[in-house]
Amino acid sequence: MKRIITYGTFDLLHWGHIRLLQRAKALGDYLIVGLSTDEFNAIKGKKAYHSYEERKVMLESIRYVDLVIPEDTWDQKPSDIMTYKADTFVMGDDWEGRFDDLKEYCEVVYLPRTEGVSTTKIKEDLEAHGMICEKK
Ligand code: C2G
């Protein structure tokens, strides 16, 4: 069984996220997603619209996703790779090169990012149409 691991915030889930997960799963048999916690998002300088729990429920409903674990820090990846016996680490190529140090632990693959969609763009488009993207 080939085990794949990837990480992200996955807020306002969109087809760029889905395509990433679909292609990551296609590289193996089992896909683990390290989902950024709300606290880690603050460290990343992100404020997700949906809470960790909400984003976790959505990810777990995706057919390509087999396990969702919390991502609390930048440097948990090596121990996650060992704990979950991941054979391949996958990220979109906006991260190209940033995680090459993980080649010490497993294969590292950067997949082409889906152009034209992003959580930020969704928020900007909604706000441009007068819909504020902050939870009440
Ligand atoms: N992605 C993509 N195409 C898009 C948007 C995102 O392929 N149009 C990919 C990203 O490259 C990433 C994944 O979807 O691999 C999740 O994206 P984000 O939720 O934005 O995650 P990010 O903030 O990049 O967090 O430790 C790693 C970080 O947690 C990554």
Key traits:
136 residues, alpha/beta, five-stranded parallel sheet, 5 helices, 5 strands, binds [cytidine-5'-phosphate] glycerylphosphoric acid ester
Commentary on this structure:
The chain has 136 residues and is an alpha/beta fold. Helices cover 32% and strands 21% of the residues. It has five helices and five strands, in the order βαβααβαββα. It has helices at residues 15-25, 38-44, 52-60, 77-83, 119-128, and strands spanning 3-8, 30-36, 67-71, 88-92, 107-111. The protein has a five-stranded parallel beta sheet. The relative contact order is 0.21. The chain binds [cytidine-5'-phosphate] glycerylphosphoric acid ester (C2G).
Q: How do the strands and helices of this protein lay out in sequence?
A:
Elements: E1 3-8, H1 15-25, E2 30-36, H2 38-44, H3 52-60, E3 67-71, H4 77-83, E4 88-92, E5 107-111, H5 119-128
Parallel strand pairs: 1-2, 1-4, 2-3, 4-5
The protein binds [cytidine-5'-phosphate] glycerylphosphoric acid ester (C2G).
